[in-house]
Amino acid sequence: MGAVVALAAVWGPSAGAAQGVGDPVGRAVGPDAVAPPVAAPGVEADLAYHGHVSFWNGRVGVWVEPSNHGPGAVPDATVRLRFSTPLAGVEELPPGCLRGSPETVFCSTGPMRAAGAGRPFALDLRVAGSPAEVVVNISTSWSGGARDRNPNNNTHRVLAPATGDKYAY
Q: How far is 156 from 86, CA to CA, in rounded Å?
């Protein structure tokens, strides 16, 4: 989590681009980078995540549809997906996503206007070992500077047995 918080603090165009370093959504990261866009001070938003989780043959699939019920807009937010078992190897992640640890993936929502949707994303990942089930914890890691007084719709814990069925949240 600390790495993502640190990334959030340095996203933006900078000399970091010359170093070939970038954040998950292609902005430059480096010692001279500027802060990412944040909501105006005091802005309130209501981030929400809905989708489903499936687990089959050692693979976990997660579909996330981020949204903002308002009343204010969010310039960007970061969703944390923490898995109960480590992910196997290096997986290709969709644009805007990065690995935070062997059990964690972070993904950017992109900008969300009030009463608007963010960028949906899907993950198809292999897990280490042969567990009979996987638990996926979904939550907000960074809210783009907006206050969210209703975290119940952006914090989910999904148990997915290795049946291939979709478990909605």
A: 19
